[in-house]
Amino acid sequence: MKNFIKISGLVIAVVLLTIACDTNPSLQKYYVDSKENSEFISIDLPSSILQLKETEVSDDVKNTLETIKKVNFLALQLNETNSDLYTSEKAKVKAILKNPKYKQLVRMNMGKSNVTVNYLGEEEAIDEVVIFGADNEKGFAIVRVIGENMNPGAILKLTQNIKMDDDSAQLKQLGSLLSSIK
Hints:
There is one protein chain. By secondary structure, this protein is α+β, with helices and mostly antiparallel strands. It has one domain (24-180). It is 39% helix and 35% strand. The chain is built from 6 helices and 8 strands; from the N terminus they run H-H-E-E-H-E-H-E-E-E-E-H-E-H. The chain has helices at 2-20, 27-35, 59-66, 83-97, 152-159, 169-180; strands at residues 40-46, 50-52, 68-77, 103-110, 113-122, 125-135, 139-150, 162-164. The protein has a 6-stranded antiparallel sheet, with helices on both faces. Strands 2-8 form a two-stranded antiparallel sheet. A hairpin with a 2-residue loop joins strand 5 and strand 6. Helix 3 (59-66) crosses helix 5 (152-159). The protein is globular and about 50 Å long. Residues 13-20 and 177-182 have low confidence and may be disordered.
């Protein structure tokens, strides 16, 4: 009887461990791992960097801004020495975004470039928006907009009323990095 209880406990532990360990790679893990690679450009922007152009905007716009918690930016600039890395990393990101938990909003193909916009969460209560753009001559970038109960229509409307904090060191760094990508 003791052996049966031990074996049953072991089987339950293995089943729980298997369920708890999701073997699918996540975009969060990919982002963290890639930040450690010097080939990547990564910037984390807190929501406090986002400000409204005008103080007199609707409460809807203000409430939408409050749903955004942070923005992560990760890019790999393509050069003569890292084309294999570019190809393999782009494939990894595409594989992660094929996971059914990422729902596609938009897909654009522009010759050598393409952009996809995916989200996590429910259609009217999005927790994360992922913009993935790749260009076979320049490289790729991933932008993660992380929030809580974001509404995609309201987010698009918000982009017309938003300005960036010009004094932010992070923003200046992002601007100089982006201008170097040609």
